[in-house]
């Protein structure tokens, strides 16, 4: 074996051995929402609807829910009625299986499908204020309810793909989600306590953003942090990861709109 | 039986030689470095680094990145990490070559480490375009940091 080919062979062994992490999942009873890692002030800001900035988006979402849109001239409320009744518990089940597309879709995608197929309106861009507002309004109807992701034969392959992504080392810094959020939560990354990474409050108001944002925006932030090429908004990898993260947080209570540092 | 043992031990030796080469390749176009036991005894650039520049790199959270995970004897620095060991006194605990290997290929010391290999460019996944094909730090930057850390001999913070 030449030195070059041996080095390549070694590099391959090293590659194969280091691209995923073992991934000991957090025991169910040890799981904690990011809320519990926050300062008293930030928790108080989330708890009081008079100070929670995310409530502005929820109120905008309520107005949009009742407003007619698109060529069909229909409002969400024309089909779904009172969201306080019809949307209760819905966000706790997303991402959910879409029979027509034969894949899970997240809440934003479901709202856009209603827009294009029922309202005959243009889909809203990711992180568009109206899309965030509608998503926040729908998810808010499940505040306080436990996440109820129950994988079945159809969704299991997607959930497993999301788990594999969570365990995969990526980027120039060669880090997997699991290395921080399963294995080192509670430790300090610079001055910040590493949370467990449960998506219990999305879309949420992040003080760093000075805005409401989606889970995919947050995931892109982490990917950019490890110097990885982030998946595009709406990518299948993100929906799979969302599905895995929601399953990982099963039973935990939704907080939308949450506030985070 | 003796013959089988000889074959097995030859195979084992070959696989060990394959898994633990004396020479490893650095980044594209960068010099190979030699690993001796738990150290890289020879400078990656062939010269000693500059400790003052190394200190600036260690404190720079966008270049060296060290303080994201480590704390150290830098009382003026807020928000230091607690993921890796404290760097205070590292020069008293480890030799220059041991420090160098821990920056270049930390997984040689601990396969479960979260610390990235600072001189690695190959076998990585989805590296962002701006960083593709580049190590986290250059050979010169690593030598500057090695020079600085080697001088951190006081265990108290």
Task: Provide a descriptive summary of the structure in words.
- In chain A, 43% of the residues lie in helices and 7% in strands.
- Chain A is built from eleven helices and seven strands.
- In chain A, helix 6 packs across helix 7 and helix 8 crosses helix 11 (236-248).
- In chain A, 38% of the residues are buried.
- Residues 1-22 and 25-29 of chain B have low confidence and may be disordered.
- Chain B starts with a helix and ends in a 7-residue tail after the last helix.
- Chain B is globular and about 40 Å long.
- Chain B is mostly helical and 157 residues long.
- Chain A binds chain B through residues 1, 3, 6-7, 9-15, 17-19, 22, 168-175, 179-180, 183-184, 187-192, 194, 223-224, 227-230, and chain B through 18-19, 21, 23-25, 61, 65, 67-69, 78-83, 107, 111-112, 114, 116-117, 120, 122-131, 134, 136.
Topology record:
The complex is a heterodimer of chains A (261) and B (157).
Chain A: H1 3-18, H2 40-47, H3 54-66, H4 76-80, H5 83-86, E1 96-98, E2 103-105, H6 107-119, H7 129-140, H8 156-167, H9 177-181, E3 188-189, E4 192-193, E5 204-206, E6 211-213, H10 215-225, H11 236-248, E7 259-260
Parallel strand pairs in A: 5-7
Antiparallel strand pairs in A: 1-2, 3-4, 5-6
Helix pairs in contact in A: 3-7, 6-7, 8-11
Chain B: H1 2-19, E1 23-24, E2 33-34, H2 51-59, H3 66-69, H4 90-93, H5 96-104, H6 139-150
Antiparallel strand pairs in B: 1-2
